[in-house]
Each structure stands twice: as C-alpha cells, then as structure tokens.
Amino acid sequence: MPEPVSLLLDCDTGIDDALALAYLCSQPHVELVAVSSTPGNVDADQVARNSLALLELCGRPDVPVAIGARAPLRIPLVTTPETHGPQGIGYAELPEPQGSVHPGDAVELWIEAARARPGELTALLTAPLTNFALALRAEPRLPELLRGVVIMGGSYYYQGNTTPTAEWNTHVDPHAAAEVFAAFSGLPADRLPVVCALETTERIEMRPEHVEAFAREAGCAAPELVLPGQQEGQRSTASNPLVRHLSDMLRFYFEFHRAYDQGYIAHVHDYFAAAVAAGTVRYGTRTATVHVETAAPRLFGTTVADYRGLWDEAPNARIVSENHPEEAFAELIRSLGALARSMEPSGG
After folding, report:
1. Residue 2: what pLDDT?
2. Pairwise CA distance, residues 318 & 340, whole Å
3. Nearest Cα to 271, choosing from 152, 122, 147, 153?
4. Looking at residue 105, what DSSP letter applies?
5. Which of 66, 77, 97, 182 gives 20 to 30 Å between its CA and that of 262?
6. What angle do CA 301, 303, 304 make, to 5 degrees?
7. How far apart are CA 101 and CA 83, in angstroms?
8. Any catalytic annotation for residue 269?
9. Low-confidence ranges of the chain (pLDDT < 70)
C-alpha cells in the first residue's frame, strides 16, 4: 500500500478528468480534501455538476466541490464539445447530483486548507491553471505550504494537440500557466512541480481491450465491448453503474480520436497525472526551466523546456520523461474494477 496522500484536485471534468477522479475514489490511501472546478473542457458550472455526480456515484458525497474562476485570466474561454461532448462526459448520462456546490470560492478553500495543513497537501492540476494562478496571487507561500504539485499540461519538443506546438490545458490559459511556473522559479528541486506533458501522457493510450478488462475485473457477467465496428453513439447495457457510465464516456472519446486520424483509442492524460500524484505508478523526471509563450500568435500557449540551462535561469519544473503504460493500465483496471465490484457485488 502506498503511503497516505491528501489531495487538492483542480479539474475541468472532462472524460479523462472523470476517469482520474473515479480512480482516485478507488484508492483507499488517497484523501480527497477538495475538488475545485476550472472552466476548460466545459464551463465551470458544468464541471462542478459532473464532479459532484461522479463523486456521489463513487460513494464520496462528502468531498466538497467548489467553483473558482469562470474564465481564463486574460482571454475568452474556449470549450471542447467536439472532444468531450456537450456536457463534458461523452455519451454518459450521470444521475443529477443530490449535493450542492460548496458555497465558498475554490481559491479561498484551497488557501484555507493549505494554511491549516502546511506540508500535508498535494495539488493535482488536470485543468487549465487559472484557479491555481489566482491562488498563488492570493497566497504566494503556496509552493512552500503544499507538500507537492502535479500538473497535467504542456508539450515539450513534441507535437501539440490543439495547435502544432501547444497542448490544450496550457493553450486555454497560457497566462495562468506562465504565472504558475514563475512562482516556482529557484525553489529546491524537490519543491518543483511534476509536469505530465503530452510526450508521456499520450503513451497512456486506452484501447477497447482495456474497457473489456475493466468490466471483467468489475465482475460483469457479459463482456463490455466498445469496438470500432459498432454504431457510433451505441450505449452500454451493463448493469454496473460505474462500468456503464465510464464505457459511455470512453466510447465518445474513442470516436473523437478516430475522427482525428489517431485510431480507435483514447489518450487518458489525466489518469496518469492522478496516478503520479497518488504514488501508484513508476516514472522518471528531468529538471528544466519552462517558458510559456503568451504573445506570438502562432505559438500562443506553446511550452518550451530548457533542460541544459542555456537561458541561465533557475529551474521551475520537473518534467516527466519516463513512464510505463502497461503497468499504469494494469493498476487502473485492478483498482477501478474493485471499486465497481463494491457497487454491485453480483456483477452486471
């Protein structure tokens, strides 16, 4: 069992955010202190509804869900219904949440938690960095107050997924990302954020056989087949609610990737970042100085890493340079399967 981890999660739920959140709920050693909502894949209110509904589905209605920013720092919000569906969760139709969004501001909630528990909390950021940038403005000591920071975002000497050079989260709010990396400049290496960028998250390539294995691990009586030859938009008939909803999310994601000539797969970026924060996967990092481009129109949102110190500037990140996809999927299937079995012991 990994050592206990207490997380502040900021997400823009999102199919891969949803998978990450369900995975964290399946980990008995992970305490979800709070989940904050940043606009990105969908608007902040829809993000919060998705997170509330998923937490309730996974048996965690106690976790507070808060909203902070409703737009990027300086530019208009652009969402991705073509990637994640109009509600952000593909074809899934989650039950309407019974709970309510936390009445306080997400940024204030994070700062209060970090001050109350110095050195205990890890920030996991799977959305644009808007809320975290605002939190750093309000409390510049956050890099010292937090135990650690894990970021999903950026693309370093690797093709972008939004522009030829830019990754989605960073492109949505590059000004926020620039402020976040600047806040960590010059800190000791073990205090720098761990950055899960496209060159390693796109190696976490979910395929139909992973969905089938998850349902089997969950105890489903019938195979859960999400296959390229099936009709687009087909819905799962699994009686297990977690299998059914995640399957319907992932089918939409598979179809999106195929439409953009990437194959019938799904890059589940945020699950990998969640597993890094939870301490349940192996990975290696390289220390670097990160620059986020906020001016040049064609390079807007591009992230560049100086690994060799050529800029003569202090490092501000540890970028993941090595991961192990087969091990990561074995962990995901085992853990999510166990959570699903606990919802419906008789299988589906």
Report:
1. 86
2. 34
3. 152
4. B
5. 77
6. 145
7. 25
8. yes
9. 344-348
Q: Which residues, other chains included, contact 239 with Cβ-Cβ below 8 Å and sequence gap of 6+?
A: 220, 344, 347, 348
Candidates 84, 171, 257, 269; catalytic one: 269
**C-alpha distances in Å from residue 162, one per residue of 39, 92, 153, 274, 276:** 16, 24, 12, 22, 24
Residues in contact with 310: Cβ distance below 8 Å, sequence separation at least 6, in sequence order: none
Element (H, E) at 264: none
Side chain identity at residue 324, one-letter code: H
Q: Which residues contact 57 (CB under 8 A, 6 or more apart)?
A: 22, 94, 95, 241, 242, 245
Tell me how far apart the alpha carbons of residues 229 and 214 are, in angstroms, rounded to a whole number.
20
Q: Is 124 helix (H, G, I), strand (E, B) or coil?
A: strand
Structure tokens at 273: 């970042």
The Cβ-side half-sphere exposure at 288, using a 13 Å CA radius, reads: 20
Cα(40)–Cα(38) distance, rounded to whole angstroms? 6
Q: Looking at residue 346, what is its pLDDT?
A: 46
Q: How far apart are CA 216 and CA 218, in angstroms?
A: 5
Amino acid identity, residue 77? L
Interior angle at CA 276, CA 61 and CA 286, nearest 5: 150
- pLDDT value at position 347? 41
The answer to whether the beta carbons of residues 114 and 49 sit under 8 Å apart is no
Q: In 3D, which of 153, 132, 142 has the Cα closest to residue 195?
A: 153
Calpha distance 86→226 (Å, rounded): 21
pTM of the predicted model as reported, rounded to 2 decimal places:
0.97
